[in-house]
Amino acid sequence: xxxxxRDGEGQRHGFGKAxxxxxxxxxxxxxxxxxxxxxxxxxxxxxxxxxxYLQNKKHGKGVFFYPDGSKYAGxxxxxxxxxxxxxxxxxxxxxxxxxxxxxxHGQGTYVYKETGSKYVGCWVNGIQNGPAELIHLNHxxxxxxxxxxxxxxxxxxxxxxxxxxxxxIQPVQVKETEKEEEDEDExxxxxxxIWKVSEITKLTPWSPHDEE
Length: 212
Known about the structure:
Elements: E1 2-6, E2 12-19, E3 25-31, E4 34-42, E5 48-54, E6 57-65, E7 71-77, E8 80-88, E9 94-100, E10 103-111, E11 118-124, E12 127-135, E13 139-146, E14 149-158, E15 162-169, E16 194-202
Antiparallel strand pairs: 1-2, 2-3, 3-4, 4-5, 5-6, 6-7, 7-8, 8-9, 9-10, 10-11, 11-12, 12-13, 13-14, 14-15, 15-16
Function: Functions as part of axonemal radial spoke complexes that play an important part in the motility of sperm and cilia.
Keywords: Cell projection, Cilium, Cytoplasm, Cytoskeleton, Flagellum, Meiosis, Repeat
Organism: Nesospiza acunhae
């Protein structure tokens, strides 16, 4: 069903309201048969998008409310979260920063609602990767991350006015010989990097960007 403007060829054009065969509805602007301009699209599953369209795709600024209660407000390119935006997750966590291909990518800040901690730094394809700061209630960690885990040189900075320098070292996997027969060649779970302290100092200006 459609009610609204049409162009000379009878295509939807200008402002209109439509109910799609799958039960979704759209109210907003059209250009020559395609959703273009500003509009609001309601999905049958309870999701809703309100914002800009270009040739049937979410493009420009827009807000998407997901069925699980999460929400994204920011830039879109060809139906993907891309550019700058803020995402409120269903568990109350938030991410504010850069996006590419629907994923957290570039510089951004992720706040964990449960602990109040926040990660401020680089992301690659949705994963914490690169120089960053992990800020907790009374101390913070400054260093580099690889695949979501801290690795290499870094420091913990404590609010009482001192720092603990050191590095995160990736432990080596030790193969257990007894289990050899029953082992189905499952790749071992990667071990978490281990923090190794080198010195305690008063506050210093060192930052993970210094090494680049």
